[in-house]
Write a structure and sequence with these properties.
154 residues; alpha+beta; Aminopeptidase; 31% helix; globular
């Protein structure tokens, strides 16, 4: 079941984006636009006050998907929220018949790379100057096997 996010939820996603990604953050308008696209999947985590503290946005095309954004509010990082978001998203994608999931991650973002590797994403390429000149990104891919349960590798 797809639930429409409230405007304050979208604003909170934009705030988290700005705090995490600085000048590479998506604007409120871009976030709103991406969330309205029927091919995109978004999952959020809210705190006890029903405020968004984490989100994942994924684009689905045929039997493949791309993780576009994954963010957790700084003060809530290190609590397994990003892992939970990724696990939930991969499970939804697998049950929807998705075979491959791709993402790009900065070569400098070791913490994110470790998270993705924990879920058996493999480095399959590199995009030079992806974020800016001299700031490449790794392309990572995970093959989703039908009938398997998504879990992290501890």
């Amino acid at each position: 079941m797809k639930t429409k996010l409230k405007e304050e939820d979208i604003a909170r996603i934009a705030e988290i984006e700005a705090s995490l990604f600085k000048d590479k953050a998506w604007s409120l308008e871009l976030i709103r636009s991406e969330l309205e696209r029927p091919e995109n999947l978004v999952i959020v985590v809210k705190d006890d006050f029903l405020e968004v503290i984490g989100y994942i946005i994924i684009k689905v095309i045929l039997d493949e998907a791309e993780v576009l954004r994954l963010g957790v509010k700084k003060e809530n990082q290190g609590k397994g929220i990003g892992e939970g978001l990724l696990m939930a998203a991969l499970d939804v994608l697998r049950r929807s018949g998705i075979k491959k999931v791709f993402l790009e991650v900065s070569v400098d973002n070791i913490k994110a790379q470790r998270l993705y590797e924990k879920f058996e994403f493999k480095k399959v390429g590199e995009r030079p100057d992806y974020y800016s000149p001299g700031k490449p990104a790794f392309i990572m891919c995970k093959i989703l096997e039908e009938g398997s349960h998504v879990k992290s590798r501890d």
